[in-house]
Amino acid sequence: MDRDRPADDRGSPARSPVERALRVLILVLSAVLILGTVYALATDSRGRASRSSPGPRVDLPREGEAVYSRLGTIRASTRGEPPAVVAVTIAFPYPADDRAFKEELDDKAARLRETCASFFAEKSAESLHPAFEGALKSELRDRLNAQLSLGRIRELWFSDFAVVR
C-alpha cells in the first residue's frame, strides 16, 4: 500500500495533507485522554464528586421529632374507567415528646387510614401524576388534620407511591 507512493527525501512514503491532519488529530486526542486520566487519578476528582453528591432525597425527622408510620400502605381504586389501583406508604414527623398526640394518632389510626383510602379513591389516575404530588400531600394533610384535635401534621411523606392502570 505505502509502496505505491513516491518516497520523500528521507525515504518514507509521502503523506497527503488530510492523512497528516488525521494523524495529528489522533495524537492530540490521545494526549488529552491520557492527561485527563492522569489528572483525575491524581486529584481524586471522581471520589470527591461521589462524596459531595447528595444522592436520592431522603426525608428525615428533625431534632426532637419522631416518625409516625403506622398508617402503613394504603391501597385504593381510583375513580374513572377503567379504575387504576394506587398504593402508597404514608409517614410523617411529629414531636417526639408529645405523648398525647402520639396516643391520639394511635387511637385514630384506622379512621386516618380510611380517610387516606377515600381521598385516593376520589382522585382520577391522571390527577395522581408525580407532578401533582405537592398538592396531593397538602390536601391530604388538611383532611387528616381536620380529624385531629391534640396536634397537627406539618408534612406528609409518600414512599412506594405507585399507580397501576
Descriptive account of the structure:
- The chain is of the alpha+beta class and 165 residues long.
- The chain has two domains: 2-52; 65-164, 2-Layer Sandwich (Tetrahydropterin Synthase, Chain A), CATH 3.30.479.30.
- The protein contains five helices and four strands; from the N terminus they run ααβββαααβ.
- The protein has helices spanning 17-43, 45-52, 99-107, 109-122, 133-145; strands at 65-68, 73-77, 85-95, 157-164.
- Strands 1, 2, 3 and 4 form a four-stranded antiparallel beta sheet that branches.
- Residues 50-58 have low confidence and may be disordered.
Helix/strand structural class: alpha+beta
Task: Note the run of SSEs as H and E.
Answer: HHEEEHHHE
CATH homologous superfamily grouping of the largest domain: Band 7 domain
Number of helices: 5
